[in-house]
């Protein structure tokens, strides 16, 4: 057993005992009252999940095991003094709840580089069987499902593993799956946009650096941006669609490939991860229709207003939980101000930021008029030359694996049961409301 697994089980067993105790001895404690409005608005604010990897505050934004993004940028190991933290370090933090050393990060980097070597050929065959015009998320998810033939978890379950040991094959599967996602994503990218001219992985590189390398970007600048991108998209508490779907499917003891694939189907929705691609289409159409890359603030306002008047959402703005500017937006803006002060798209993003919150507030119905992570992430990628918008959600997905799959290991450590909330029909809700029509 490697030392990370040793640590995990040492930390995990007592916590699993606490979860059991809470269930058994405090099971009848009322934790919250739930209103009809909450249920009918998609369970907003209803506490119904146990998630330890990260926590989202409406005003402050995300904290990963207690650390904000600015703190992570300071405290997690980096390759260079002025670099960005390595996602391997964030994975370690989310898994074990403590900050990693450089040696810990190197251990994970090497483990992922080794595990990434064994992708079954049929995962690539499945991708190749799809038309190149199929959205990258279709290709990505098909490959993820195809790789479930390799599932340690499935094999261990069929072999009759003890329930309290399920976390172990889950850990093995999660490590394999995370290690392979950059290869799969880069393969799809080069297949669709670079005439199938694939680039081999470089085992000496870190996980995110390798992704940039295999996509065809070898400058230290792009690698730095990719590390930031992979860190900030990694997790957003347990109730968002991709995290919740992964957890829900995992609760049926589905293997990590099935579970993560479910999460990725959710990420592909326009109100969730696909928003990053849609922001770019929205900005591109704005520039095309106005015939300029440098529109006036008034022109941007009119364009945004026309979007709202036609009954569409402005992508990249609003959030189901956040009530302030997303710190993931703020950190990317900070990064862009430092490294890309003259980038046309970043200037446009700032103009949109100047006018859209006010317009959304004027509607009187939008609960959060501020930008989310997707309002700028595509402009950052595009400014570094990664201009193919359809791959943006897939890159989000590669990063999201870090958080949701770490939580899946913890779900099995805690021995969480199958998830089964109660549903009711309309008559039940009408009766509760005393609604007699
Ligand atoms: N533009 C226009 N209208 C918006 C809006 C936006 N950006 N954000 C919210 N609204 C509207 C809603 O559509 C809803 O309208 P309705 O009452 O007519 O149905 C009303 O405002 C109230 O919605 P809400 O309670 O403020 O938001 P929500 O929790 O229901 O939805 C979200 C949250 C993110 C889906 C929504 O803000 C949205 O559609 N934003 C644009 C898409 C986007 O950027 N998604 C990415 C989110 C981050 C992520 O997951 N990656």
Automatic annotation (TrEMBL):
GO terms for molecular function: citrate synthase activity. Pathway: Carbohydrate metabolism; tricarboxylic acid cycle; isocitrate from oxaloacetate: step 1/2. Its EC number is 2.3.3.16. Signal peptide: none annotated. Gene3D superfamilies: Citrate Synthase, domain 1, Cytochrome P450-Terp, domain 2. GO terms for biological process: carbohydrate metabolic process; tricarboxylic acid cycle. It is an enzyme of class 2 (transferase). Keywords: Acyltransferase, Transferase. Belongs to the citrate synthase family. This is citrate synthase (unknown stereospecificity). It comes from Marinilabilia rubra.
């Amino acid at each position: 057993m490697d030392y990370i697994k040793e640590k995990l089980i040492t930390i995990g067993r007592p916590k699993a005992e606490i979860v059991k105790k809470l269930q058994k001895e405090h099971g009848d404690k009322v934790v919250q009252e739930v209103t009809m409005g909450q249920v009918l608005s998609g369970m907003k604010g209803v506490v119904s999940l146990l998630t330890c990897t990260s926590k989202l505050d409406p005003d402050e934004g995300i904290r990963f095991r207690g650390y904000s993004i600015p703190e992570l940028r300071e405290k997690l190991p980096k390759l260079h003094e002025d670099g960005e933290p390595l996602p391997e370090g964030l994975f370690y933090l989310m898994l074990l709840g403590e900050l990693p050393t450089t040696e810990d990060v190197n251990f994970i980097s090497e483990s992922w580089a080794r595990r990434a070597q064994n992708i079954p050929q049929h995962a690539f065959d499945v991708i190749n069987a799809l038309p190149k015009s199929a959205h990258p998320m279709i290709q990505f998810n098909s490959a993820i499902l195809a790789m479930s033939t390799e599932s340690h978890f499935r094999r261990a379950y069929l072999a009759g593993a003890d329930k309290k040991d399920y976390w172990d094959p889950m850990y093995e599967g999660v490590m394999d799956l995370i290690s392979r996602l950059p290869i799969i994503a880069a393969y799809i990218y080069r297949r669709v946009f670079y005439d199938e001219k694939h680039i081999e992985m470089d085992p000496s590189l870190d996980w995110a650096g390798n992704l940039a390398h295999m996509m065809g970007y070898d400058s230290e600048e792009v690698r730095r941006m990719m590390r930031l991108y992979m860190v900030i998209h990694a997790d957003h508490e347990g109730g968002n669609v991709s995290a919740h779907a992964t957890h829900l499917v995992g609760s049926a003891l589905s293997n990590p490939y099935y579970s993560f694939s479910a999460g990725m189907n959710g990420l592909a929705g326009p109100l969730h991860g696909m928003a990053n691609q849609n922001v770019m289409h929205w900005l591109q159409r704005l520039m095309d229709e106005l015939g300029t890359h440098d529109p006036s603030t008034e022109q941007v306002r009119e364009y945004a207003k026309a979007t709202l008047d036609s009954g569409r959402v402005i992508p990249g703005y609003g959030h189901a939980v956040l009530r302030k500017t997303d710190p993931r937006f703020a950190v990317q803006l900070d990064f862009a101000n430092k490294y890309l002060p003259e980038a046309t798209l970043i200037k446009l993003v700032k103009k949109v930021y100047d006018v859209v919150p006010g317009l959304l507030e004027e509607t009187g119905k939008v609960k959060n008029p501020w930008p989310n992570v997707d309002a700028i992430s595509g402009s950052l990628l595009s400014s570094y030359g990664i201009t193919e918008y359809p791959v943006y959600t897939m890159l989000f997905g590669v990063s999201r694996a870090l958080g949701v799959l770490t939580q899946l290991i913890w779900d099995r450590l805690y021995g969480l049961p199958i998830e089964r909330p109660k549903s009711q029909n309309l008559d039940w809700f009408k009766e509760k409301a005393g609604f007699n029509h």
